[in-house]
User: Which sequence fits this backbone?
């Protein structure tokens, strides 16, 4: 080989081909499992034979009448015995439904919680303040987890609370109908939600972060509080439940969702607290929030929120949310 050709070949650089760029890893759905929680919905219709004068927001009234009536019906220790110190609280229907206690150390996630959440939810959408004679009042009482077998006590309390009178002047009601339907919350969250969903907050929703109530939660905060409710109910009211505490990757996935539209406003309402003997002003956000993205991992959590509600004050109906998939034709 000629010397000049050999030299040229020796110094020729090999061809430089572009290196393949690896594709970004596809999002991995976290392997979180929601506890399976049974519930029973009692759908109640009352009639006011003589009419009634009620508050616009009736969840607090119904919860208070239910609790007082249930205690009078089942407590054998007398009204001066606090539920927290009663030796019968583990078998007492009133204590289990209305004054549940934390027995033993709570899970680390709930360390510092002073009392267990109540395994009941009242739902009422009627905002009338004056009922004419013969008018009806509809509401639901949802019994959760281990509270389901206590349905006979709940029925008794509803019937006696109604006949004993509700609202200003304690006008008597009578039960026209009381029907029960059962359901399950869990990983089988029903049909897929699709790529876009609207959350409609029907009653004031009180979500707090570091002691401050939020007027508009972030996506992560919202999913966290929707998730907290089933974990609370399972941990304190579902015997033998296996609770999955590895939900942080799910919250990280929530950060990838997009808020398409938000129309949230603050709404205050007043209630009278018999325990504190004072009128209280409570508030929370109501309105709509539309999310888009990969909603499949959140379907069971959002569907559970429709039954369990979200945030504080859920027992008397606050944090009531409906989940509405957005039809494809309306996505724009």
Assistant:
């Amino acid at each position: 080989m000629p010397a000049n050709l050999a030299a040229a070949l020796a110094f020729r650089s090999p061809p430089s081909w572009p290196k393949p760029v690896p594709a970004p890893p596809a999002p991995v759905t976290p392997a979180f499992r929601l506890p399976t929680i049974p519930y029973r919905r009692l759908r109640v219709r009352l009639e006011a034979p003589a009419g009634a004068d009620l508050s616009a927001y009736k969840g607090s009234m119904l919860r208070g009448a239910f609790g007082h009536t249930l205690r009078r019906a089942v407590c054998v220790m007398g009204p001066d015995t606090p539920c927290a110190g009663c030796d019968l609280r583990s078998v007492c229907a009133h204590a289990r439904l209305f004054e549940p206690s934390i027995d033993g150390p709570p899970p680390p996630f709930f360390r510092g919680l002073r009392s267990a959440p109540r395994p009941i939810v009242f739902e009422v959408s009627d905002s009338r303040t004056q009922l004419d004679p013969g008018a009806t009042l509809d509401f639901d009482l949802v019994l959760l987890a281990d509270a389901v077998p206590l349905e006979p006590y709940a029925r008794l309390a509803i019937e006696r609370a109604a006949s004993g009178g509700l609202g200003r002047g304690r006008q008597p009601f009578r039960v026209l109908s009381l029907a029960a339907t059962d359901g399950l919350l869990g990983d089988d969250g029903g049909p897929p939600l699709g790529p876009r969903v609207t959350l409609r907050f029907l009653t004031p929703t009180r979500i707090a972060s570091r002691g401050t109530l939020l007027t508009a939660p972030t996506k992560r905060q919202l999913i966290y509080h929707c998730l907290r409710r089933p974990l609370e109910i399972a941990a304190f009211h579902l015997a033998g439940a296996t609770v999955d505490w590895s939900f942080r990757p799910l919250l990280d996935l929530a950060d990838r969702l997009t808020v398409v539209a938000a129309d949230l406003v603050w709404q205050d309402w007043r209630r009278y607290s018999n325990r504190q003997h004072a009128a209280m002003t409570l508030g929370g956000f109501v309105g709509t929030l539309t999310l888009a993205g990969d909603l499949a991992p959140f379907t069971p959590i959002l569907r559970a929120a429709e039954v369990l509600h979200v945030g504080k004050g859920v027992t008397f109906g606050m944090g009531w949310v409906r989940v509405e998939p957005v039809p494809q034709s309306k996505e724009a």
